[in-house]
Structures are given as C-alpha cells and as structure tokens.
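TL;DR need structure tokens for one chain.
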Amino acid sequence: MAAECFEPDEWQTGRLPKAKTGYWWVAFDGKTPAAFACLRPSIRSEHTGYLAMSGVLARWRGKGLQRKLIRKRVAYARQLGWHTVITDTMHGNAASMRSLIACGFRPYTPVVRWGDPDHAVYWTRSTEPRLSV
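>> reply
TL;DR here they are.
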C-alpha cells in the first residue's frame, strides 16, 4: 500500500512525493512506517478540508491508527480555520466507513460527485469539537 504513494527512500528521509500536495502524517513503529494520511484544501468548497489519502499497512491494522489519523486531520483542519471536512470511500470499504462514523462523519450527497459514480460514498463533518454525552 505505501509503495503506491511513497518511494522507499522517501520513507527513510521523511520527504513526501512531490506530486502529492497537502499536509501529510506518517505513523511509525520505531523506524518502520505503519500508516499514512493526507489532508488538503478542498477544491469543491471554501474553508473545507479533504481527507485525501490514507492507509494502514496490514501488520498494524486493527489498532486504531486510522481513527487517530482521521482525528488528527480534523483537528488540523480546525486549526487552519476550515469549518468542514469531506472525504469519500468506496461502497464496500466497511473498515473506512466504520472509522469515519466513529469520528463523527455522516454520509452526504455532494452537488458534484467526484469519485466513482457507481461506487463512491461521500462523507462530511464539521471541524467543531464533538460533545461527549
């Protein structure tokens, strides 16, 4: 999964792919990368962030890294002054959907769909902190 986004030497040097823009987080287990995630400004709406790319390598799945990276990106979007965060998943990606729901995202229908028209599910949430009950 990481090889699709990062060259091996980029993991070691901390550099990110030049073709990929936005704010990046990489979670490490010691010196070994375990997960990555990107947040970038939405081209769809002002003051909105887009959760662009993310992944947790197989060895580290099921440990809550995806949710932690979602929360980090929402918090950073808030710091940037963005009021909303959006993203999309594929219809069958239950793990990502569960993580997004757990982090306060809800499905919505955008005016202009940008993902696979037959398989994309669109998600949104405010960057305001969620209230605990």
